Structures are given as C-alpha cells and as structure tokens.
C-alpha cells in the first residue's frame, strides 16, 4: 500500500487521493466503503484539479475544497450503502425494512460471555452495511441497554427500524412469578416504559407480544396498545409464536389491528412447522409478514466442521450457553442433526458461499413474505449473513433444499418440554376476561 501511495503522490494526481486513502484505512477490513472511498478520492482529485487548477493548493488542508468534498462524499457513500441493500415490505401495508435483519439476543445473554466492544462494532457495521432492521427483547439480558448506549453515542437512532418485545416473562420477577407469559394491561404499560428507558428512545418502531398470554384475550392486549399507537410511541405491532387464530383476532381489532404487520416465528431447514401447519399461508392472507427467528438452527446450519471444531461435547459449551438445555443440542442428538447442514454445504460450494448465506437465500426465495433475522455478535458474522440477501439461488437448488429439509430426520424438539408448552399461541376469548 505504501508503494502505491508514493507513486500517486509523486505523479500529477492531486494529493486529495492521499486523504481518501487515509479515510479508507480506517474502514474495517473488507468493509463496504473501502473501494468507494478510493474511487471518490481518485475521481475527485482529477476533477477538482482540472476544474480550477489555478486556485488549488499544492497540499490540501482540512478546510480546503478537497477535504470538504471528500468528507461529504464519504457520508454519501455510507447512505448509499444502506439504501442499496435489498429490502422487503413488512406485511401488505407496513414499512420497508432490510431484507435480512439483525437478531441481537446473543449480544446481551444466552450464548455465554458477552463482549460489548465487539457488539458495538457489529452494530456499527450492520448499520453501515444497510442491515437496519434490528430485533431485541426485554428478556435479552443487557441487549436493550447496549443498544441504548450505541444510539446515544452514534446519534443514529433514526436510521434503525427497531423492534423489541414484551410478555415472554417479567425479567424482574414482579409479575406472574417471572417465569410465565404475562400480558395484562398493567404489565404492558410497565414493560413499555422500561424498554423505552433502557433503549434511550422515545419511540419503538415495532413492538411485539413475545409470547401469547393464555389468560389474557389478544383483544385486551391490542386495546392496551391503542394509546401508544395513537401517540406515536409505538409505530407498528407484532406477535410472536402465536396461533393463526390469535393472529386473525388481533387483525380484527378495529383501529389498531391494522398496525399488526409482523409475526415472529421460528423457521429453518430444521423447523418447518409454520409451513406444514398452515400458519405461513394464513399470515400471508392476513397481510402479515413472517419474521423468521433462528433461521440458521441456532448454529446447526453452519455445519459439522464449524460446530465440531468448537463443541466436541457438552463440556465445550460455555456454562451460560442456553443451547445446553435444548434437545437438538444434546450429546446424542446434535451430531445427528448435521446431515442437513452437510447437504446444504454441498450446495453452498457451488456458489462459493457459506451454508449460512445459502440458507438465508433459501428462506428469502421460499416466500417474499419471509424476513429472516439471524443473530450476530461480530462484524464478521454480520457481513456473512448480510450476503444471503445478495445471493440468487437457482430454482433447482431452492427445490433441493426444500426436499432435503422435508426428508430430514431432525432429532429433538425446538425447546425443552416446559418451554414447548408455552408455544401453543392461543388465549381465552374476550367474554372470559374478568380483568386484572
């Protein structure tokens, strides 16, 4: 690099090129702005020199036209990077979001030791890359706090379409014992204020009911959210792990049901439930997007080489890694579940892509109503997953992944028995509600 810089510096190209190179040097390795920065500097140096050579300084200063132009161009490139990333509409009448989102659960909990510095880099890289549909929840440990700090330090809150959730359980243990779904009106108001404070924001773009509370009608939940919708504190509403019937009831609540645009459900080559039980089709008919969580099977899709190299037995998992409690990651089951990942890798090799990228591309090809939100804790994984939206699979390969997923003998449920019992997604009818 030094040799190249010296050659240009001693030729007739204006030194503004040197300044662009310096800015590019601060870009992460493989960063999306690296090449554009060099191009801007090169073109700007020539153009400005020809335009007004008599008025140019031999060496640009920070206040000179060259640097002003360069800094402005760099900001433009950042915006272009975001706007050029593929997008999808959230539901039939909802907002446009990045075609692949960012799951942030691992930033604050559940996968062992957390690293706030790495999280900051990942968040910044995602925003720069155009992956601006971010998903979090009040039970994800310190995630909301970390995002709040990032917003405060960067001033980029308006660039992010932010989703968070309530109602899986009360992380502070004040409601329902802290271990059961809770969506009473008083709790929703309490949870909303807490999330706003932790996130350091005065509005939430998409607010999910994380788990359906069987004891509270969904109509009561929607009526509770009416006021924050009307005041703009909440822009849109989502449900998670709900039944098709609960989703229909939510959409039917006049004046607020129209704001229900997303249903967050698990879907991957290992979990085809929503496709088999008709939920995906029902959501589409209702104009509700399916936001796909755990699209990579919580790491299983990365394949035998990746997982086995790190986890030869349960003893290799960090003690706080929640996958230790999942049936599919038991010592007996998780090696058996690699057969699907191995076959996906064979397809990925044809595209010079990773199994994760191919899986995400498959999900996007499966249905235009799907928006996957893979979890990431590093900028490297953000970049890898982001590439899934830029990969076009052939019809034959989409069909091949469908076939191998259908034929897969997946071992173990998604969650332990007690957790699976919370995923029915139904609630009592309004006439049975007796209040709090």
Query: Class by helix and strand content?
Result: alpha/beta
Major beta sheet, specifics?
A: 8 strands, parallel
- CATH fold assignment of the largest domain: TIM Barrel
CATH superfamily of the largest domain: NADP-dependent oxidoreductase domain
Which residue ranges are poorly predicted, with pLDDT under 50 across at least 5 consecutive positions? Answer: 1-31, 47-63
pLDDT averaged over residues: 80
CATH-derived architecture of the largest domain: Alpha-Beta Barrel
Q: What is the spatial order of strands in the main beta sheet? A: 3-4-5-6-7-8-9-10
Number of separate structural domains: 2
Number of strands: 10
Q: Portion of residues in helices? A: 40-55%
Task: Tell me the name of the CATH class of the largest domain.
Answer: Alpha Beta
Radius of gyration: 24 Å
Instruction: Count helical runs.
Output: 18
Percent of residues in β-strands? 5-15%
Cα distance, first to last residue? Answer: 68 Å
Shape: globular
H-E string: HHHHEEEHHEHEHEHEHEHHEHHHEHHH
GO cellular component, one term: cytoplasm
Domain NADP-dependent oxidoreductase: 99-405
GO molecular function: oxidoreductase activity
InterPro entries: AKR, Aldo-Keto_reductase, NAD(P)_OxRdtase_dom_sf, NADP_OxRdtase_dom
């Amino acid at each position: 690099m030094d040799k190249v810089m010296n050659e240009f510096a001693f030729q007739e190209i204006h030194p503004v090129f040197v300044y662009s190179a310096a800015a590019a040097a601060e870009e992460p390795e493989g960063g999306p702005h690296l090449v554009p920065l060099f191009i801007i500097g090169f073109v700007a140096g020539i153009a400005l020199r020809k335009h007004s050579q008599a008025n140019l300084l031999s060496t640009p200063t920070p206040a000179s036209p060259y640097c002003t132009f360069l800094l402005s161009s760099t900001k433009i490139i950042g915006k272009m990077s975001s706007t050029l990333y593929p997008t999808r509409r959230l539901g039939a009448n909802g907002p446009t979001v990045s075609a692949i989102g960012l799951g942030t659960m691992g930033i604050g909990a559940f996968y062992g030791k957390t690293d706030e510095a790495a999280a900051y880099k990942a968040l910044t890289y995602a925003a720069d890359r155009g992956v601006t549909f971010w998903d979090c929840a009040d039970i994800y440990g310190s995630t909301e706090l970390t995002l709040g700090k990032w917003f405060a330090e960067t001033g980029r809150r308006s660039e992010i379409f932010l989703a968070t959730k309530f109602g899986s359980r009360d992380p502070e243990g004040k409601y329902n014992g802290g271990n059961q779904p809770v969506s009473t009106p008083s709790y929703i108001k309490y949870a909303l204020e807490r999330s706003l404070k932790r996130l350091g924001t005065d509005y939430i773009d998409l607010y999910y009911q994380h788990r359906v509370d069987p004891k509270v009608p969904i109509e009561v939940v929607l009526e509770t959210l009416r006021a924050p919708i009307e005041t703009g504190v909440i822009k849109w509403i989502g449900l998670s792990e709900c039944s098709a019937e609960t989703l229909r009831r939510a959409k039917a609540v006049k004046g607020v049901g129209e704001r229900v645009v997303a249903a967050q459900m698990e879907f991957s080559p290992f979990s085809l439930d929503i496709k088999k039980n008709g939920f995906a089709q029902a959501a589409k008919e209702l104009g509700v997007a399916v936001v796909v969580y755990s699209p990579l099977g919580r790491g299983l899709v990365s394949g035998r080489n990746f997982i086995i190299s790190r986890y030869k037995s349960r003893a290799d998992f960090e003690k706080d890694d929640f996958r230790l409690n999942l049936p599919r990651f038991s010592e007996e089951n998780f090696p058996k579940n690699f057969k699907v990942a191995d076959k996906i890798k064979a397809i990925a090799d044809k595209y010079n892509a990773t199994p994760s990228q191919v899986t995400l591309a498959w999900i996007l090809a499966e249905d235009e109503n799907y928006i996957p939100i893979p979890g990431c804790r590093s900028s490297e994984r953000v970049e890898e997953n982001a590439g899934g939206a830029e990969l076009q699979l052939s019809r034959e390969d989409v069909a091949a992944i469908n076939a191998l997923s259908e034929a897969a003998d997946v071992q173990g449920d998604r969650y332990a028995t007690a957790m699976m019992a919370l995923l029915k997604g139904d609630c009592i009818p309004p006439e049975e509600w007796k209040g709090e």
